[in-house]
Specification:
CATH architecture of the largest domain: 3-Layer(aba) Sandwich
Largest sheet: 7 strands, mixed
CATH superfamily of the largest domain: Bacterial extracellular solute-binding protein, family 7
Strand content: 15-25%
Oligomer: single chain
CATH class of the largest domain: Alpha Beta
Radius of gyration: 20 Å
Order of helices and strands: EHEHEHHEEHEHEHEHHEH
CATH topology of the largest domain: D-Maltodextrin-Binding Protein, domain 2
């Protein structure tokens, strides 16, 4: 298997929720260096992982540089969607951006995280991202994009939901229509099990499910709860087919323009922000699962043998596609 598909073994993960306070109106005083940080998520620091992480980053950098650097936050897509944010970071008009899937459009090697059933647990995912693999991927993407991955954070394991029947094995997917992102990896994933992948924009997903345009969809628990998909979906299978990753990116030229001590502060603040993001996500997923059950969703957890069936069918199809896209280093 190519090195992009290798894993580093288990590690201990720790997450904390830092004391968070909302950012004020963006201003910069004379002599200050400004960091414009943009992300697409809502600004609620108690439920939005990117809001929590960006707020931690802001206050650490502001305070530890003694005000020499001022971080101004632009949440909720104020400066555009994730692709626009990445483009702005690459150009340098935004210094720091937080985004997920669209980054693979700039660094195709990042598609490795879309391999289904790659991570058996959060611990393996954390160690992989924090270890040599994560560092090598960051260096590869830096050389290709001029954007440095300051840190990785979790978006969470994605699970199947549908309104037709419980899904316990890949055979249960056959014939069902699933809303997917406009991403060939996810289309290959559903198609490999005999399902019909249907790309639908996220804002239209609820209506598509409600009107039976599609039978199901796949997302992390927190997204299913937030979008109230429990109102139009009866069954959820906790298969955790992919592990979503969020990237905090910084324009490399900007980073190198800072004094060394300020570069270190920025890097450390980014690492701490990821801990906060992961904490929010773990809390939302833990509470969200019980919430979905209380709302009437039937939740099924596949056995190890059933999980192996999903993996044996879906993984080869996606890896074959990615090897053609990324190549075999």
């Amino acid at each position: 298997m190519p090195r992009w598909f290798s894993l580093i073994a288990m590690a201990v993960c720790v997450f904390v929720l830092a004391g968070l306070v909302p950012a004020g109106i963006p201003t910069v005083q004379a002599g200050q260096v400004e960091i414009r940080l943009a992300h697409p998520d809502p600004p609620d620091i108690y439920t939005s992982r990117k809001a929590a992480g960006s707020t931690v980053f802001k206050h650490m950098v502001d305070n530890e540089t003694g005000g020499a650097i001022k971080v101004n936050l632009f949440p909720a897509g104020q400066l555009g969607g994730e692709r626009e944010i990445a483009e702005a970071v690459k150009l340098g008009s935004v210094q720091v951006g937080m985004l997920s899937g669209p980054f693979s459009g700039f660094c195709k090697e990042a598609q490795v995280f879309d391999i289904p059933y790659l991570f058996p647990s959060l611990l393996v995912a954390y160690r992989t991202l924090e270890g040599p693999f994560g560092k090598e991927l960051a260096q590869e993407c830096l050389q290709k994009t001029g954007m440095r991955i300051l840190t990785y954070a979790q978006v969470g394991f994605r699970n199947f939901t549908n309104s037709a029947r419980p899904i316990k094995t890949p055979a249960d997917v056959k014939g069902l229509k699933f809303r997917v992102m406009e991403n060939p990896v996810y289309m290959n994933l559903v198609r490999s099990m005999g399902g019909a992948p249907t790309p639908i924009p996220w804002p239209e997903t609820y209506t598509a499910l409600q009107q039976k345009v599609v039978d199901g969809q796949e997302n992390p628990i927190s997204s299913i709860k937030f979008a109230k998909l429990y109102e139009v979906q009866k069954y959820m299978t906790m298969d955790g087919h992919t592990f979503g990753v969020s990237f905090m990116l910084i324009n490399e030229k900007f980073l190198q323009s800072l004094p060394k001590e300020h570069q270190a502060i920025v890097r450390n603040a980014a690492l701490t922000s990821a801990v906060s993001e992961n904490g929010i996500d773990n809390l939302e997923n833990s509470l969200g699962l019980q919430f979905l059950k209380e709302k009437g969703m039937e939740v099924y957890v596949p056995t190890a043998a059933e999980k192996a069936q999903f993996r044996s069918i879906a993984q080869p199809a996606v890896i074959d596609y990615l090897e053609k896209q990324v190549g075999r280093p």
